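Task card 7
Instruction: Convert sequence to structure tokens.
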Amino acid sequence: MKIQVACSSKLEQLGRLRARIFIAASVSLVGSTAAYAEGSHQFDIINNTDKTVEITKTISRCIESGTSVNWPQTIGPRQTYTVRWDDSNSIYDYDGYGCVNKDKFVAFSVYVHGASNQQYSGYLGITHRRLSGGDWYNGQFYADSISVNNENGGISGSDGSSPPNYIQALCSHENNCFGPWSEMEWDDKDSYNWQRSYKTEDGWAFQINDPG
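Output:
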């Protein structure tokens, strides 16, 4: 009888310990805003003009199967639109080539209706990539061209000229998260992009001012 009581006591203690570990892990995950693979992401497109902003082109890589990016067609004057997307880390994407540990990104182009000056025609984008130490980081980039091979997920692109001043990339780290495609997406993980990539999922935005 004493042996049974002792065993029951030990099992109860073990059960309570497991419960505490589970609760602590759950609280940690719920309270975190850090970046992970296969997660939800969002950023704002801020129309800081009295004109209509149109999204003219979009492109993405490694988006969760069965979902889509909620791109707007247009954004009204002085309005802010939140773009949401879920990245994929599946082995089944791109005919089995997969998205495991591959860079994930979304990008778009904008046109301000009624503006008289020449406008930027390149892409503005958010990258979600694995950098040194195995952690996932976010960053912002611009590109003149981007292509994604739908058969194997391969990517290519070019920087082109940087966007004019009426386009502002904003983030929660003193707005120092923006760089060319070649540095933020294409280059090795230990290049200068390391200085402009952050784990946080908060505060990402592109603000479109009046080009004149």
